[in-house]
Design brief:
5-stranded mixed beta sheet, single chain, 620 residues, two-stranded antiparallel sheet
């Protein structure tokens, strides 16, 4: 008879010298940036509540534990198949790889403890503990720190590579500093989950269905609803309020391209943070959670505890919250989600920020809204605030300033507080003043000692932002030259032949004899923005090893920014000519592409980014 065995496992116990596989029909690894950001923030928050400067690693045994939930494993043919839990196990593996590389670079002893949780010795051959053949290529590259391009790979590989980049950008190491080994040991020994194992697939799937379909506890959304409805004694008002709440929650859960089980809670968190969070935890070890953090974890309790300040708790006030305030902000939130998923005229900046996976966007865009805003005013406020975020974010990205969930949390709290419930004209003035006073620009950052767009080059951090930048510059050139806006198509990874980054210089130093002082200079300049374009993947692959003289002939049939390297683009293109002359843009065609041409192209890129991300867009 098959047995069902539940065990509590620490991360170390779960992953030590055992591997996990998945069945071919299992879904892809689909965690989004927000899931990784939330996991890392939760882990860091729990750790920092316990850690004190000067603690030795033995103190970790007394730190609080953190529970990651449960996984379901079917054991057959000598392997552990993940029936439920591959998203968490994959994300844990990515985090462990990151910690391993950081610890190894510092020469920390914990490196030897982490390594067996990522790979083990299989009869003299290393075997990664996440034993999914088609994903090994990215795991191995990340583990060894070798160059890797996700272009053309399957969805899970691309997503894993992107989520690892999110972990790098989270500033986990910067916040931990000397506490890195303590955090690593705490993660391995005080963070755990329930492993439910069985040798029968039918049992495993029955457990999965039971856990997901039956006996669900009340969610924070349910408890908030109960609190808000409790004082409403009038039977008709109570029925209306209950029906309205249920409608708004159902609309949130079923809205958008993909159903999300927690979108109702995410919306409420964004609303309460944007409109009501007045305090945030001090940025030091052992600090107590305040409004900003409490809304993110126990918002139902926070509303009750702050009822006087929020002006809730009576029949009339709660009825208004449920039937007017919540529907207004839920509608605005859905508008933001819709514009994040679909390229919407007038709300393009929302789509831009979503493409850059800026997790705080929905929260910040709700901050300037007021319940009595009409649809036009609310839409303009959303557009203006999204435009500010677009400029603010890209200015930082080109300066290698991290813009992850944790690293921008404090800045977004301050921004929400500064623009909260502001009239449209005041909002635009405040946002404009902030951009004018910003240290980070496309020319650089004095405070950070960064060189801006001129020093931006491809690496694991910058790749996504350079792809975005090239798509924006390409689309802007087309639109200002009278062509349709191609941005949504340029960044669509689901199209049959998606666009990839094209290097103008082929990756062969020998092809460029006499152009560069040495191979190091060649490799550095080859990855900078002036030497990059966007091309469909099949064209990109066909041109990889070709010299410029051959490539440039193929560029002529593509978008204007790419085609501008060829002479034919400058004939019979009056709107393109007007675009160039009206802004004195230094577009040129080149029969050869050496360092001299690269320098001219660099000047053009600098001109274009100032136009694409001009603060004047706030007033348009």
């Amino acid at each position: 008879m098959s047995t069902i065995t539940p065990h509590y496992r620490t991360v170390q116990q779960l992953l030590q010298s055992q591997s996990f596989a998945i069945d071919e029909y299992q879904r892809e690894y689909k965690w989004e940036k927000k899931h990784v950001d939330e996991l890392l923030s939760d882990l860091l928050d729990k750790f920092e509540k316990n850690y004190r400067v000067g603690d030795n690693t033995k103190s970790i045994a007394n730190y609080e534990e953190y529970f990651l939930g449960s996984i379901i494993v079917s054991q057959r043919n000598g392997k552990n198949y993940l029936i439920d839990g591959q998203q968490r196990v994959t994300s844990l593996t990515l985090l462990l790889i990151y910690l391993y590389r950081e610890a190894k670079q510092r020469g920390l002893q914990v490196t030897n403890t982490i390594a067996p949780l990522i790979f083990s010795d299989n009869l003299g051959h290393p075997r990664f503990n996440l034993d999914i053949p088609e994903r090994l290529v990215v795991i191995e590259a990340l583990f060894n720190g070798t160059p890797f391009s996700p272009d053309g790979k399957d969805q899970s590989v691309r997503t894993m590579y992107a989520r690892y980049a999110d972990i790098e950008q989270h500033q986990l190491i910067a916040e931990l500093d000397d506490a890195l080994p303590h955090f690593a040991y705490w993660l391995l020994t005080r963070v755990g989950l329930i492993e439910i194992a069985t040798s029968n697939d039918n049992y495993a799937y029955a457990i999965f269905e039971t856990m997901n379909d039956r006996g669900k506890p009340l969610s924070p959304v349910d408890m908030l609803k109960a609190y808000l409805l409790a004082p409403i004694d009038d039977a008709d008002q109570r029925r209306i309020a209950n029906d309205r709440w249920k409608k708004e929650v159902l609309d949130l859960l079923t809205f958008g391209r993909e159903r999300e089980a927690d979108r109702d809670a995410t919306c409420i968190k964004a609303w309460l943070r944007a409109q009501h969070a007045d305090t945030i935890r001090d940025r030091k070890a052992g600090a107590t959670d305040r409004d900003w953090e409490l809304v993110g974890t126990v918002f139902h309790r926070w509303v009750r505890d702050n009822s006087a300040r929020l002006k809730v708790g009576t029949q009339q006030s709660n009825y208004i919250w449920v039937t007017q305030d919540f529907p207004f902000f839920a509608s605005a939130y859905k508008q933001i989600i819709d514009a994040s998923e679909s390229y919407t005229p007038g709300l393009e900046a929302v789509f831009y920020n979503a493409h850059n996976e800026f997790t705080w966007q929905s929260t910040v865009l709700l901050a300037p809204l007021q319940e009595d805003d009409d649809q036009v005013t609310a839409r303009k406020k959303i557009a203006a605030t999204a435009t500010y975020l677009d400029i603010w974010l890209m200015r930082r990205a080109v300066n290698y300033i991290r813009v992850g969930y944790s690293s921008t949390s404090y800045a977004m709290f301050l921004l929400c507080r500064d623009i909260r419930r502001k009239p449209l004209n005041d909002l635009i003035e405040i946002l404009g003043d902030k951009l004018a006073a910003d240290d980070a620009t496309f020319k650089g950052s004095v405070q950070k000692g960064r060189g801006g767009i001129d020093q931006l080059a491809l690496n694991q951090f910058s790749r996504r932002y350079i792809f975005h930048l090239l798509a924006r510059v390409t689309a802007y050139t087309d639109v200002r030259s009278g062509r349709p806006d191609p941005f949504a198509d340029l960044v669509n990874r689901d199209r049959k032949n998606p666009f990839d980054i094209e290097h103008i210089w082929a990756d062969d130093f020998r092809l460029h004899g006499g152009v560069f002082a040495n191979q190091q200079e060649f490799e550095q300049l080859r990855d900078t923005v002036p030497a990059l374009l966007l091309l469909p993947a099949d064209v990109n692959r066909s041109l990889q090893d070709k010299p410029y003289s051959y490539k440039v002939q193929k560029y002529a049939t593509h978008h204007l920014y790419t085609a501008s390297l060829t002479p034919s683009t400058y004939a019979n293109q009056p709107q393109f000519a007007n675009f160039r002359s009206s802004h004195a843009l230094t577009f040129k065609n080149y029969t050869e592409f050496t360092k001299s041409e690269w320098a001219e192209r660099q000047h053009l890129v600098a001109q274009l980014v100032e136009l694409v991300w001009s603060p004047e867009r706030l007033r348009q």
